[in-house]
Design goal:
The structure is a homodimer of 484-residue chains.
Chain A lengths: L11 H5 L3 E4 L14 E4 H13 L3 H10 L2 H10 L2 H11 L6 H5 L2 H10 L2 H10 L2 H9 L3 H10 L2 H11 L6 H4 L6 E3 L4 H11 L9 E5 L5 E6 H5 L7 H4 L7 E2 L4 H11 L3 E5 L5 E6 H19 L11 H27 L2 H6 L2 H29 L8 H30 L3 H31 L4 H29 L1
Helix pairs in contact in A: 8-10, 9-11, 16-17, 17-23, 18-23, 20-21, 20-22, 20-23, 21-22, 22-23
Chain lengths: 484, 484
């Protein structure tokens, strides 16, 4: 992408047409001659469900929902109103697909859990993959959690309790227990026989077969495509990859995501402190982490903790409040700088009129730099190796743009107020403002990172404070010096 | 996540310790007794390379770089300075792994392409996966592109030219040609024999076997784990999944990413207009798209088009300029509102002092709403189905927080200037400001989406204009009415 205004009109089609959700299995009922399935975009499905609820046609709703993939059903539940959702849940409750929980937004999932019996929830949990089960259970309050754990079959309970011993957001919580591990000395033929004989004991999907020593420590991994193309007599050890990425159970999930993304992994073994194989992380779980990781930074830079679109009004209000309160304090700080120059403004009111220009330019330029820096820190493109170079570059960019805008803004202000000296004052302030914005936009996130504080959360508050304070000081200070 | 200030200190470990990059294959040279490999974090590698460049130990550099995975080597090249990179490239050039190109940031890749001969580049391109080859070639200027295409072997050239006929950012550009397709009537045994006989003709990695009819139209797909656990006599058609997600070659890549993310896919077949199987999209390519998609929105909300961290100073300056210019215009617009009340400010200078508080609160609250809205539109959580409900909710949240801050800000301002009426005026302005910010933060992105303009690009400009204009008008207007 070359330089130029941020323009990306290719989103048009994606924005205009919501994606179509497939309806129903290929059982002939919803297929036309070419064997195609029915598809419908989500807003249409929501509309249909609303109509059927009004007409009390719960039977039609049941048919529709049983045809939907659980991910699409989750989206449907999320986007109807609260009352409609209650009714829908009554329809769904008897034959609930446990997979639905994994796809639901956590606020909606809480609603569902609250209306169901512990026994029902436990039955669903027992059928889930271990990572989805842990995800659901860790969100529950103490009491409910105890109830549901008590209602679980012994093996499932043991798995969940063990999973909960791993730190939140670690590989141990992300992994599945279901995997395929074979001894070192087996041949391809023996592996195939084993797989055919194991039937339903195997994981539903797997992409690698892990090779373990007698102590169950992992010594290699074979992609199953490689197994398939080898002759029966070949030893698995001979076709195994030995330098694999072993993921310690305590590894942070963002580290795990980095590995998958960097090396194009589809699955990776998880080991305990002794190197024993205890689970596997699958790429679709990592995709969720990658999504959340980028989304997290986007939201934090905007001053929110969560996509609270599904939360109730009061919860959302409270969640938004603290960020606004912090910004209120810094806004008063910036105001106090202006307060130092009350006398100056009384003499030249034009200065008050131009304040938004000063604050705006500094804030925007600083935010540009800050955004690039925060993202680059998150993706490890900005590190100790190139930090100084980056700071220097952004300061220079700030100085150059500052000079350009000194001319533009200075000319505009000078013409507006028919006073060239006002133009000169605001022009000089521009150069200072944008130069400082470039420095602040780099040094603040880098400094916060060194102090082990998440830069996405805290940077923008500090940044706007700095650009406002410096901007107002430079502008009003120069005005007091030069014009009076 | 429950409500509360945005706090996420779990990033600490990830921030403190850059991830370790593996060095070298498991060939005994760099392993200790437990068969572990050497690992080193990137900043250390950069440091080492710098030292060796100073000492002119190019032989040591060559050993180190030949041990690195191409993704890590790409990171190394990205983070050294420009002069160091030139020297490194001289060392790497004779034995360049074509995979390196796929991992390099596009600005750095341009540098590499510029110093290499067309013949060299063509040799690398011929060994790449078709999607990586197209990615490289589409970025070249006309002249260079023609040179390299001319130097390609006929088959590779045909593949690339065909790939270029698909729209940018479509599935056709994302897909690989290498796949495994078998006729409908084959048995598992025949498939295994075929795979064993095909040897190197097979794709290096594959996770599904596609089943085609005599016209090469896709009729089903079998995950290879399922093939492996079935007996030789079983017909593949009997174990195939028929209702698969067929991706038209023209589908937008963000749609493709949606499908993979929604349904947890690992690979998906790409078909032409007649339903014939022409390629396959793999999950690791989609992971890149998902990453970029979220990153894109994050950057656009901050007013930048690109993570320009690797771009030269002047390119970056130009790229930043247009966004700042647009904001300059809107800042003057907001200033002109203040200009209407020059007389009022001359009489009560305190009003000028409080302007940043008014502008800041509105802008921040509006940005919170806007950020949630833009993200929710991108993930399809906000659609026609729940748009109205969302607007109503945010307006209500704005009104409630507006009332709370009316009290806080009003009290602070009243105390500061020892004039309760100033507190009343700014308090009323707060309610109006935050209520309007909630409306604007929802209606602007929704409106832009309806007009098929990317909301992430344009929303924040409109938003701050609205909140500033309305905020200043309400504050100064009320002041003129009440205090004078």
């Amino acid at each position: 992408m070359t330089g130029g205004p941020p323009e990306d009109v290719r989103d048009q089609d994606a924005l205009r047409d919501p994606p179509a959700r497939p309806l129903g299995p290929a059982d002939g009922r919803s297929e036309d001659e070419a064997g195609e399935r029915d598809y419908a975009p989500l807003p249409d499905l929501v509309q249909q469900v609303r109509e059927w609820l009004d007409q009390n046609r719960l039977d039609l709703i049941e048919t529709l929902t049983s045809d939907l993939h659980s991910a699409d059903l989750a989206d449907l539940l999320e986007q109807v109103g609260a009352e409609e959702r209650r009714l829908l849940l009554q329809v769904l409750r008897p034959n609930l697909d446990p997979e639905l929980f994994a796809h639901l937004d956590s606020s909606i999932r809480e609603e569902l859990v609250e209306i169901m019996e512990p026994r029902e929830i436990a039955a669903a949990v027992a059928e889930m993959e271990s990572d989805d089960a842990i995800d659901l259970i860790e969100d529950l309050d103490e009491e409910r959690r105890a109830e549901i754990l008590a209602a679980l079959p012994a093996e499932a309970r043991a798995q969940v309790e063990e999973g909960l011993t791993y730190p939140e957001y670690s590989a141990g919580r992300l992994m599945q227990r279901d995997l395929v591990a074979v001894p070192q000395f087996w041949t391809v033929g023996k592996v195939l026989d084993f797989l055919r004989a194991s039937g339903d004991d195997l994981p539903e999907e797997f992409y690698d077969i892990f090779i373990v020593d007698p102590m169950h420590r992992i010594v290699g991994s074979v992609p199953i495509s490689r197994v398939m193309r080898s002759k029966r007599a070949v030893k698995v050890q001979d076709i195994a990859i030995e330098d694999i990425h072993k993921i310690p159970a305590t590894m942070d999930q963002e580290e795990v995501a980095f590995l998958f993304r960097q090396y194009g992994l589809v699955s990776a073994p998880v080991v305990d402190a002794a190197g024993r194989l205890i689970g596997v992380v699958m790429v679709d779980d990592v995709v969720d982490v990658i999504d959340e990781e980028a989304e997290d930074d986007l939201l934090k830079l905007g001053g929110v903790a969560d996509t609270d679109i599904y939360r109730a009004v009061l919860d959302t209000t409270k969640a938004r409040f603290s960020w606004l309160a912090i910004n209120m304090v810094t806004a008063f700080l910036a105001a106090s700088v202006i307060g130092l120059f009350e006398a100056t403004i009384e003499r030249i009111v034009a200065l008050a009129v131009l304040l938004p220009v000063v604050a705006g330019m500094g804030g925007n330029a600083g935010t540009q730099t800050l955004t690039v820096a925060v993202r680059a820190i998150a993706t490890r493109e900005l590190s100790d190796a190139n930090a100084l170079r980056f700071v220097g570059k952004e300061a220079l960019v700030g100085a150059i743009n500052g000079s350009t805008f000194a001319l533009l803004v200075g000319a505009a202000a000078g013409l507006w107020f028919r006073d060239p000296m006002i133009g000169v004052v605001i022009g000089c302030a521009m150069v200072v403002n944008l130069f400082v914005a470039g420095l602040a936009g780099t040094l603040i996130p880098l400094g916060l990172t060194k102090l082990r504080i998440d830069p996405a959360v805290a940077s923008s508050v500090f940044l706007t404070t700095v650009t406002d304070v410096v901007g107002f000081f430079a502008f009003l200070g120069l005005a007091a010096l030069i014009l009076l």
